[in-house]
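Action item from last week, closing it out:
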Amino acid sequence: MKIDTRFARMVLLVLLLVEGVNGAHAQSGDQILDGIGETGMIARYVFDGNLKDWSRNNLHAEFKGANANFVQDDKFGKVLSLAGGPDDYVVLPEGTLTNLESLSISGWILLRSAKQGQHFFDFGQNIDQHFFATPVGNAQQEGFQALVTADKQPHAGAISAAVPQNKWAHVAIVIDVFSKSITSYLDGKLVGEGKDIPKELAMVFGSGNSGYTKLYIGKSLEGNNPTLNALVHDFRIYRVPLTQKQIAGIYYNAQQGVREDEQNMGKVEDDLPSYELNKAQ
């Protein structure tokens, strides 16, 4: 009988230890969004009436013009409207893209103009060291183009047919430094790929808050290009190279109306704890 009592006590102790470990993991563990761990996310701008970052990093954006314009959309509710004016663009904090080994961008865009030179985003130090995506191309290359460069030499970007106008399209670009590739996706499908990319992203974005790195949504680093005339929703930045399956998951979840509420995503607050961007929590 003593043996049974000891065995029962041991089982109870193990169960208590397991419960404690699970509780600690639940408190400090990774939140999952569209099948992707939150620690892989640098920033998420839903653009549902404000420019706040929904990730744990609090990298809230700013609008260059007087006031950002948000409109009601049948598909996504409230979304950001960029009208193509000289100050109609979003600026991200300079230190957002530091200490990265790979990078993924995804977002929804409803293009309202076929004017070439419009940029969905343009991140970098200057026109020779930047990462950008143009929905309809530019003077040098027509079509949906994504390119990353760290010098004045020509690079082979990910190029495909232009993003369609007057309808929502999900755009994603992945830079995988280890495979030396840049890939582009439209509505969850692979559409373009390039193999000639810089060896390190620090060559593109710099290594810290140098004052030279500029991160624009809706504007090119080159001053002569027009700003973006489009609606924008759910712009995400990841520090990991997303797979095609993960990108397709983001697209199809939105198509099926799987939208995260405040309880699932976490409430956006200005005083949430922040973390070093180059370390998983």
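Closing note: Residues 104 and 188 are 14 Å apart (CA to CA).
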